[in-house]
Design a protein that fits this description.
The chain is of the alpha/beta class. The protein is globular. It has a 7-stranded mixed beta sheet with strand order 3-2-1-4-5-7-6, sandwiched between helices. Helix 1 (about 1-20) runs parallel beside helix 6 (about 115-120) and helix 8 packs across helix 11. It has one domain (about 1-250, about 265-275): Vaccinia Virus protein VP39 (Rossmann fold, 3-Layer(aba) Sandwich), CATH 3.40.50.150. The chain is built from 13 helices and 7 strands. The longest helix is centred in the first third of the chain and has 21 residues, at about 1-20.
Length: about 280
């Protein structure tokens, strides 16, 4: 299992390094959750990001890797500390940082050095544009966060936990770093029913945010086992329906391996997850 986990991380790290170099998921041949800058902006707006939020981003921060809008779910407040798991080029970090303001802090964690370098290179542009110096990016795996216990008010993540080979550990780490009463806002891909084995074993489907997804009920179970409460899980199938309309070889390959008469939206959904860490521990 350990070898397989490292193989998964290596495959994901390799592909996302390539995405960082290209500046978007699209390579003419393939895209996960978006394409070129115009397509990425259009997709982000369809998920509830405002034109104003997108206009305030440093160039290249939006690489079309979203499958939801966790900053909207999180209802961020001035002065809060927010942590983004799998921050990539800093898309949600830079948006969150403007919401928490000068007294707040937005931290991004990513395991891909090329993504981290891209995000850090944009900090100066962000500060010049906004006058804020409240962003930092840290190298690390989301299963082992380089963040202190009970130190952040909000944890967000956008289409990343599905890539982890140990999702239960991610949820435990997420709960660990939250302050008592802290909030969780996750957008991810999840399964409505199990995928055919042939698709699960496709490397392209893994880095394409599909093969690593788990059932909605499994996501809920892991969050509860991590000690989180007030869970609300909201499927957003319209996002996957939109993906099916893309002229995308990856999804064409997935479709050819689905049972006859079915389509990706029968199996996959975008899922918004909100939860909270209890303010006090229950007595045993």
């Amino acid at each position: 299992m350990r070898v397989k986990a490292e193989e998964v991380r290596a495959a994901v790290r390799k592909e996302y390094a390539r995405i960082a170099a290209r500046g978007s998921w699209r390579v003419k041949a393939r895209k996960c959750c978006g394409g070129n800058a115009e397509e990425s902006a259009g997709k982000a707006q369809s998920m509830g990001y405002s034109a104003e939020e997108l206009a305030g981003l440093p160039d290249g921060a939006n690489m079309g890797l979203s499958c939801g809008n966790p900053t909207a779910i999180a209802s961020l407040k001035p002065g809060e500390a927010v942590l983004d798991l799998g921050s990539g080029g800093g898309f949600d970090v830079f948006i969150a940082a403007q919401k928490v303001g000068a007294q707040g802090l937005a931290i991004g964690v990513d395991m891909t050095p090329e993504m981290l370098a891209k995000a850090r290179a944009n900090i100066a542009k962000y500060t010049k544009r906004t006058g804020l110096a409240n962003v930092e990016f840290r190298l690390g795996e989301i299963e082992h966060l380089p963040v202190a216990d009970n130190s952040v008010d909000v944890v967000i993540s956008n289409c990343v936990i599905n890539l982890s080979p140990d999702k239960a550990q991610v949820w435990r780490e997420l709960a660990r770093v939250l302050k008592p009463g802290g909030r969780v806002a996750v957008s991810d891909l999840a399964l409505l029913r199990p995928l055919p084995r042939k698709i699960v074993e496709m490397v392209e489907a893994l880095v394409g945010c599909v093969a690593g997804a788990v059932l909605v009920s499994e996501t809920e179970g892991m969050a509860r086992q991590a000690g989180l409460v007030e869970l609300v899980l909201t499927p957003k199938p319209e996002y996957v329906a939109d993906m099916e309309e893309w002229d995308d070889p990856l999804y064409k390959k997935i479709i050819t391996n689905l049972p006859r008469g079915t389509q990706p939206a029968d199996f996959i959904t975008s899922l918004a997850v909100s939860a909270r860490k209890p303010k006090t521990r229950k007595a045993r």
